[in-house]
Amino acid sequence: MKKALLALLALGLVVAFSNKEAIQKEWEGSAHNNGVMGEKTLAVATVEARGEAAAHCARCHSEQGFLAWLEQLKKGNPGNLVGPDGKPATVDYLKGLGLTQAQVKPITCNTCHDEDGDLRLSQDTPMLPSGFKATAVGNAALCIACHNSRNGRITWNAEDPGRYTYPHASSQGDVILGKNAFFVDDTKEWPNPHAFFTGNACSTCHMSLAGTGEYSSHTFKAPENLCASCHGAKYTQEMVQENTEHLLALVRTKVNARVLAVRDRIKTVRAYNPENGQFTPNTPVKAPVYRVDILSIAGQIAFKMTLTDGTVLYSQLGDIKDEKGQPVFPTKDPIVRASWNYLLIQNDGSKGVHNPTYTRQVLLATLNALQ
């Protein structure tokens, strides 16, 4: 009997060790490991790259920053990192947290799990920077704490946001909960089973159902055939994604048409060089705009503008100026809010799968606003 118990214990240890190795390997290939995420993304959490502004980025781009911020968040302050005195974090304080190029860590096991292996946040989030709480979402509370827009319609004027800020990349929390898009009513709960009736929302599809059964996947990638797990073998993600891609294309076409309608007013831009990250003020626009693509530059909504002579210019939206040096697209112009909505849905990455009804309504409302 004793030998049998010892054998079972040994087997359990072997399985546990094997699972740990497998999880480690999966994590190493995930976006939470800066080996894939990219050194630039991790670097924004350091004082060398951002100075005091690292107090913003480090909250979710580093282990040390997140752990410090989570305690602050639970106390009711979703803003940038603060020091022990409650004042904005200084460079010296950020250095003390380890937010330097020599010490900064990516999103590791310790970021999400405490010393007992339990998640550091579950079920409900405190008020988030994006202006909402996630309630009764299981393990997804931890995901949504970082995967949100940081800002948006909830905290801005819905008719004139007063800025050109873009929704932070990977704002899946906003989309799955139906928050922070313009032209729709997001004060109500959008009935989305993926958020509320799958057990743990994000982690159900991206970890539990994507795993082997012995452990949850830590690639954080949902398998391509995942929809069939709940909806039947004939149901595929493309059934949602193809229509969403069509709606996104229609929004791009409408935005392009509105820009071309006023292209004669576009005289200068603060041109951005994507190769070195530098800006050149008062760059003349020497030919008419032929087409635009919606993107973001340094936290702002931006356009890639192709001119009729083949020149390509990148500019933040607020830096596209007329002959008097005024923005061609003021913040109250629907094109600003339409571009926000486009980037919110585009950068969610699921092409509608996370919240099909909300995604469709947002894009249809955006098209209507651009008429």
Automatic annotation (TrEMBL):
Domain of life: Bacteria
InterPro entries linked to this entry: Multihaem_cyt_sf (IPR036280), Multiheme_Cytochr_ET (IPR051829)
Gene3D superfamilies in alphabetical order: Flavocytochrome C3, Chain A
UniProt signal peptide: 1-22
Keywords, comma-separated and alphabetical: Signal
The protein, known as: Uncharacterized protein
Organism: Thermus arciformis
Lineage: Bacteria, Thermotogati, Deinococcota, Deinococci, Thermales
